[in-house]
Amino acid sequence: MSQHLSALLVTASLLLPVSGYAQQTTAPQSDYQTKADSPPDQSHGEPIHLYWKKEEIYDRNKQTVTLTGGARAVRGDITLDADVLIGYLRHKASSADQSQSSKKTNDVMGGNMELYRVEAIGHVHVYNKANQGWGDHGIYDIDKNVMLMTGKNMKFTTPHQVLTARDLVEYYPKDHVTIGRGDATVTNDDGRRVTADILKSVGLSNNQKAQKQNNTNSNASKLDRAYGWGHVIIKTDKQVATGDRGVYLFGPELARLIGHVHITQGQNQNNGSQAVVNMKTGIATMLPGHDSPIQGLIVPNEASQ
């Protein structure tokens, strides 16, 4: 962006919770979304730096500031770019003396304000040094430290994976968690793919990243595992495995499927209640359930393929 951008520094003190962000989106409910009801993060009151190219519009009634012409918000190592950014403001909790002094200032919003939410509209791009995400519309909840994104062709990338989703992507940078909702897919750079109605990918912690850098090469995955719920599909170059739910471990490259599992290779098919899929070798192993015996169909001409 231009070096002549105007700049505004707003300190996010993270003192009060905001209304649940699930009410502002069409995201389906999940166990993980109960996080929205937890107390706000008060341990990382990092400032928000805002930049914009054209207008800065204050709305006293709505307590918002709108930045147009291409705008940027930066907090720590996270950067959010969009055509338009709307900052939502509220009064800071302050002592009586501070309240009296604020009345004497020329603050355009009429008091001591803080930023607690940023809405991004048009060509939304959120990124840090390793990961990037794109969408049409986004909401960054500063209290919860979560980015919600919607739009067509949504995509989040890591150095070795691509996550896409149809309905909603939730990005929790502090917890290294990304959740895709609606035909969500994680694709490795070698083409192996995991798809589900809801897909939650969990990145490595900072300690795990440090250990990988010391013990393995720099091409190791930055993701630790992915959980899938609903119509889970795992594709390798040899087989397709489906199930009701599953988990994929990126380190050993193993996946486990549970519930109505079907494994297909050519015309050969095995059915059961559980399976373990080795994504590295492309070999799937069926596991018997309590009441579900393994069933299979083997076509002789393809048995050796």
UniProtKB/TrEMBL annotation:
Biased composition (Polar residues): 26-36
GO cellular component: cell outer membrane; outer membrane-bounded periplasmic space
InterPro entries: LPS_export_LptA, OstA-like_N
Any Gene Ontology biological process: lipopolysaccharide transport
Signal peptide stretch: 1-22
Keyword list, A-Z: Signal
Pfam families listed in its UniProt record: LptD_N (PF03968)
Source organism superkingdom: Bacteria
Domain Organic solvent tolerance-like N-terminal, residue spans: 57-168, 208-282
Keyword Metal-binding: no
PANTHER family per record: LIPOPOLYSACCHARIDE EXPORT SYSTEM PROTEIN LPTA
Record-given protein name: Organic solvent tolerance-like N-terminal domain-containing protein
Species of provenance: Aristophania vespae
Lineage: Bacteria, Pseudomonadati, Pseudomonadota, Alphaproteobacteria, Acetobacterales
